[in-house]
Amino acid sequence: MEKIMKYSKLFTSLAVVGGLALASQTQADTYLSIGSNPVGNTAYQWAAGISDVVNKNVSGVQAAAEGTKGYVANVQLMLDGKVEAGFSNTKLAYEAHHAEGDYAGQKPGQIMGWMSIKPIIMHVIVMDNSDIKSISDLKGKRVGMGQPGGTSMLDADFLMRTNGLEPGKDFKDFRVKLPAMVNMLGDGQLDALIWNGSPPMPPVIKLKSQHKVRILDIPREISAKIRASSAAYTEGDLPANTYADQPKDVMSYRLGNVLLIKSDVPEEIVYQSTKAVMENLDFMATVHPAWKKVSKEGIINGFTIPLHPGALRYYREAGVPGIEEFAKSVGN
């Protein structure tokens, strides 16, 4: 396993306070490493913000954001004992908890639900002056697919194959991180990029501030085939004005974007950390706009696996709507 880089500083305004928080907790007896995605992407910002909140409000814990290869890697890092928590999607969460699919042979029940943050929405982006008008037009083109270890790359492969386009045969696929794809598209080294993430995504905001680009519609017949493959996929468009110069909804589909945690993390630590985050949502909204819509009403949306006992305990106390029905349905 490639060594993971540890980051104790947070972005921009979080840098100083995050560093001080970590420095003040060198004697912490519980580490809470949160796997995210490549540094600069959305989930890393989320992990950095959560770490800052936990370090300020929960004694005896040292939390830190971990820059990783992405959501697939995060689940494996959790199973390997390299991180205690990590962002992923609802499809991988179900398979990992039940030891199914790629996780067959693992011990079931190691991965549990913690928080549901915001839907992941598929983006297919091209330059505004491109002759690419649809997914089918990507045949013979240079397409950025995301980096190995991330779910976005797997979803990009699935999207293209559903459209009858085989990577390496019908188009030239590039397996690189989102920030690199953004630069390559802007520099003319790519004809399109595909990424499945929670908008607004900072690299896409940067791209649109520097170049005129378009986000392609994904036809309903294609998204229907993808949704039929797994209940984890749901219909959902990219709302109008998510990005600058995007006046209309863009047809797409979604996955749940969730924070998972190992079952062996102490219940009290998870309870206090959950409480700290939920009571500091205003601060989290300054970390990333996605958190403006996070609330107790949607904090368990999309989960089909049991919650960690510490999270469940807090959600019951906070009166999360439907919590008892949910707990019964997943066997909590």
TrEMBL record:
The keyword Repeat does not apply. It comes from the Bacteria. InterPro entries: TRAP_TAXI. Keywords: Signal. Residues 1-28 form the signal peptide. PANTHER family: SLL1037 PROTEIN. This is Predicted immunogenic protein.
